[in-house]
Amino acid sequence: MLKSAFIGAAALAIAVAGPARAADPTADTVVATVNGTDITLGHMIAMRDSLPAQYLQLDDQTLFDGILDQIIQQVALSEEIEGNLSKRNNLTLDNQRRGYLAGVVLDDTAKAAVTDEAIAALFNERYSAAEPGKEYNAAHILVETEDEAKALKIEVDGGADFAALAKEKSTGPSGPNGGDLGWFGIGMMVKPFEDAVVKMEPGQVSDPVQTQFGWHLIKLNEVRSAAAPKIEDVRDELAGELQGDAVEAKVTELTDAAKVEKMVDGIDPAILKNSSLIDN
């Protein structure tokens, strides 16, 4: 059920455990045997936890039956080759085991790094003592050429209404709204635009400013101090930073502590393309 090519369970030599179950099954509870190999409830839970989200939308009975059938088939199929693995098979299993175990270490490290105390400490470090940033309310007129922008600047300086010119001349999506861009903070606009805005005074209209979108005339309406974020608003960001730092530190710590000897002198890196070396 979890794969399109399931093999019928009836075709396999299976003996499903028949005795009455204990009131409270555990991870060690045997739910089936395949040629004498036990399949436990723990095996099923581990498989469920690794499934893509789409499968978890199935009802409990369908998912239970599908997972059990899947593991039954895997056991039956794996026994066909167990004890007769090729070099490629063994090497691939080695890599997969190492990769999985390394992932477990890093997952545990990332989870342990995120505590309420750590989040609060990083929040205080990042925001409590920091000067509040600024937010800007501006409008602009976007045209294709510098000459057009210069001509419009002359009109504005001569008393023409900025919003009316934006509605008539601007090629940007804000044009119909008089060029209004609303409030924005540092990092929200492209660099040349932002650089011009932070140097302006409220009410001022800039000289033509070039960005990858064209040429702008910018009118700065207002400036205000940005409100400090609440810890809930940036919790995910802070958690990601804590996790990234912890994972990087763990990799460095364990790698630096390991006794590593490289014996690669004289080996041509292109040899990795030679798959025939493990095809036996």
Protein model, in words:
By secondary structure, the chain is α+β, with helices and mostly antiparallel strands. It has helices spanning 41-49, 60-81, 87-113, 116-128, 146-157, 162-169, 191-198, 231-257; strands spanning 14-15, 30-34, 37-40, 134-143, 180-185, 209-211, 214-225. A 4-stranded antiparallel β-sheet has the order 5-4-7-6, with helices on both faces. It has a 3-stranded antiparallel β-sheet with strand order 1-2-3. The chain is elongated.
The residue ranges in which pLDDT falls below 50 over 5 or more consecutive positions are: 1-18
Broad structural category: alpha+beta
CATH domain fold name of the domain at 134-225: Chitinase A, domain 3
- Strand line-up of the largest beta sheet: 5-4-7-6
Helix and strand string, N-terminal first?
A: EEEHHHHEHHEHEEH
How is the quaternary structure best described? single chain
Kindly report how far apart the N and C termini lie: 34 Å
Main sheet specs: 4 strands, antiparallel
What is the arithmetic mean of pLDDT?
A: 91
Please tally the β strands and state the result. 7
* Fraction in helix: 40-55%
Q: Given this structure, which CATH class of the domain at 134-225 is correct?
A: Alpha Beta
Strand % is: 15-25%
Shape: elongated
